[in-house]
């Protein structure tokens, strides 16, 4: 076998035989187990929290996505081992840790040991910060190549909180309805989708049914009776090619066309105005240059025509000496 893969693992044996005077004799070996081990990938680490009773309980998970068991998985807290498990059938291990709200309990890492490897995960800070501060909704609109609106994505952000739970409201109604919250019942076709632990609300289409005022709210996921923090309402509405996204306090007398214009239309108008101004300036410069050339030609012709008359008059009054001077002037003027 030139290249060994996990599929080559198993029990192998060989057989030999001989023929003597038309008699065959066979002999076989014992079975040999061949194990193909895959190198373990770098371990990953995650932290979750639960509230089974009066106190909070934390859980740290260590796992690798590739490798051959068995492996030894250890949990290090501030570089000190606080737990160790030998995984024989999987590449994952779970460790319980104590939790205190608002307290930095240290940094944990996962350590994986095999016969030939020793790998460590990225560090993770053990800290549980309660949800608090401001909650804000951000809207992003998705367009096709022909600039036609296809969908809208609303994301909910909270100022602080390690384990927030999100909920969405449309016109003060919870999405999805509370009766279907834990079920797989969805509208057909679905008018929305929730991703990233319900933090992102996606509207595959934006029409009359999806238009309205959206709110996002957040609270601690480990406290079902906790207080919700709500964001300001954001209006999502599409009428033709006009998109309106504004706070709820916007005056009702303002229409979408008065508040927003399509970006392409604005760019087109600005581009046309720019070219119109450039063309007007160019025409003005050409006209001014042409007018100045005409004035210069007229002055040159008038000066040339009046010069002989002045010379003749001068020669009749001043005598021979003056006439010589006038002829010289005439010659110079004529040469020019």
From TrEMBL:
Keywords, sorted A to Z: Glycoprotein, Immunoglobulin domain, Membrane, Pregnancy, Signal, Transmembrane, Transmembrane helix
Domain Ig-like: 123-235
Keyword Membrane among UniProt keywords: yes
PROSITE patterns: IG_LIKE
InterPro entries assigned: CEA_cell_adhesion, Ig-like_dom, Ig-like_dom_sf, Ig-like_fold, Ig_sub, Ig_sub2
Pfam families named in the record: Ig_3
Listed transmembrane segments: 266-287
Domain of life: Eukaryota
Stated name of the protein: Pregnancy-specific beta-1-glycoprotein 1
